Amino acid sequence: MAKSVLSRYLDPDVLTQVADRHFDPKELVIGNLAGAHKSPLAGFAVEFAGHREYVPGDDPKHIDWRVYFNRDKYFIKQYELETNFVCHLILDVSASMRYGEGKQQKLLSAAQMAATLGYSVIRQSDKVSLTTFDNQIRGVITPSNSMGQIMRMTQHLDKTAAVEKTALGDCLDDAVSRMGRREIVMIFSDFFGDLDQLEASLQRMRYHRHEVVLFQVLHHDELAFEFDTMTKFVGLEIPDELLTQPDDLREEYLRAIHQFNDRLRSLAERNRSEYILVDTARNMGETLSDYLNLRNRVRSRG
What we know:
Elements: H1 2-9, H2 12-18, E1 37-38, E2 48-53, H3 65-71, E3 75-79, E4 82-83, E5 86-92, H4 106-123, E6 127-133, E7 137-144, H5 148-158, H6 168-177, E8 184-189, H7 195-207, E9 211-218, H8 220-224, E10 231-234, E11 241-244, H9 250-270, E12 274-279, H10 284-301
Parallel strand pairs: 5-6, 5-8, 8-9, 9-12
Antiparallel strand pairs: 1-4, 2-3, 6-7, 10-11
Helix pairs in contact: 1-5, 2-10, 4-5, 6-7
């Protein structure tokens, strides 16, 4: 069973596409283990703390060549002034995320993306947590950097059902209240909710110096509205139905969804947060590779 659960959320082809992308925080972080990222803490001597195995993306200047010649493997020297980071994955499991079939379902696509990024972070010895929510917090997997964390996360995801409405702002505030400071928060959602409340939550996250990433996960139907025959539209979070010709709605719908997405993008920019629009019809490996490549280019320029 464990293997089948893992294979539902971790695709070897996708992992291969992101394997050589190193995930680093853009800002200073605070952790509780020696790691590979700059800490904002001052007043400590930069003392040697130990080694960890090299992963692609590490700066070669930190390789301990003496260890390499003795063991024929690359290891990175770590120092007390460096730290690990904690990455919090927050997943919307409300009813609207149920839209779509197979791998293009929004919830499954978002869960696979979160699990893949979590695996990448743990692989470089940093910590990951998972929180699921709809109209309340449904589950919390506390931070860990052990590979067993991936199994705990995927088992929780596999038991999750998307049936309730969402309370985006309240749930994000609840989730953030459980965190420390200067951590990374990745939110996976369609963000169909009150954007004013979302902005207030982002402002609280930024006040605590968290780095925030918004993954807006939408089905291709929601982005392109390519229905061409009489269609019944059924509300997933409201008990409404509408039988109509899509041509009667297309222009106004596309205007509305573009305005909504533009407002969400602007909201993220105002609050110095990353915004990534995800089309579930696109290859996930390409989506994640493009995001990590862009992130690393921006970080290197900074």
